[in-house]
Every structure is written in C-alpha cells, then in structure tokens.
Amino acid sequence: MANDCLFCKIISGDIPSTEVYSDDDIYAFRDINPAAPTHILVIPKKHLTDVKSAQAEDEALMGKLLLRANDIAQAEGLAEDGFRYIINTGKHGGQTVFHLHLHILGGRALGWPPG
Ligand code: 5GP
Ligand code: ZN
Predict the structure, then answer these.
(1) How far apart are CA 49 and CA 100, in angstroms?
(2) Residue 7: CB within 6 Å of ligand 1?
(3) What is the rounded average pLDDT for all residues in the chain?
(4) In angstroms, what is the span from residue 40 Cα to ligand 1's centroid?
(5) pTM of the model
(6) Is any ligand 1 atom within 6 A of the Cβ of residue 17?
C-alpha cells in the first residue's frame, strides 16, 4: 500500500469501486469514466508504479495479471468479438494513475492507431 495512491485506496476499500474480480493478488473493477461499453481495470494488489517497475520477483504476478484479464474478458462476453488490453505508461503513454493497471476495453470496434 502506497500512501496517497488512488488505486491502493480502492483495493483497501477506502474509496468505493464496482468490483469485477478479486483474489489474493489481483483486483479488477469498472472504470469510472468508461471509454467503451465494457471498460475494466485489472490491477495487482501490490503497489507497482507502472509496468516498467516490475522486477524479476514480479514475474508470476505479471503472468497472473494477464491470465486473470483473459478470464474476465471471457466472463464479460468479449472473447468472440474481441477486445483490447492497454497499459498506459508514463507521460507519452498517457498514464494518469501511477499504480500499474491493465485496461480491458470491449463491446465496440476500437480505432487504430491511438491518437
Ligand atoms: P490511465 O490514464 O492512468 O491509463 O487510466 C486511469 C483510469 O482510471 C482512467 O480510465 C480513469 O477513468 C480511471 N479512474 C480514475 N479515477 C478513478 C476512480 O476513482 N474510480 C475508478 N473506478 N476509475 C478511476
Ligand atoms: Zn498503489
């Protein structure tokens, strides 16, 4: 838990969120400002500032993040038509919350490339 981290406060329940999935290592919840019909954030419960902060000791956790996202995408009915995972990183990546999060976007066709 990092002080003054919005997503750590969401994990602890200090800030409410709409839970989609939770286990010992991973939490998933609906984005407050959805960019698509389905917009879910999947985060490690361990505070990592961004994806490039992950170390060798986080190898299993990073794998779990992706596999749980797959389970969630399937459960949300996104598997057939497809979806997109996004991990915004740093200034040019457009990251605004500095606790690693994987966006799941689905439910409509998404444009490419990003602006
Ligand atoms: P980023 O731009 O850092 O990749 O994504 C941050 C995401 O967190 C944004 O899509 C934003 O809508 C979402 N977000 C910011 N504050 C909150 C909040 O308090 N609750 C929820 N559920 N989502 C949030
Ligand atoms: Zn955090």
Answers:
(1) 6
(2) no
(3) 97
(4) 10
(5) 0.98
(6) yes
Among 73, 1, 88, which Cα is nearest to 38's? 73
Active site residues: 101
pLDDT band at 115 (very low <50, low <70, confident <90, very high): confident
Give domain 6-106's CATH number out of 3.30.70.1790, 3.30.428.10, 3.50.50.60, 3.40.50.1220: 3.30.428.10
**Angle CA 111–79–40, to nearest 5:** 65
pLDDT, tens digit, 9 for 90 and up, residues 77-100: 999 999 999 999 999 999 999 999
55 has pLDDT over 90? yes
β-pairing verdict for 26-30 and 38-44: antiparallel
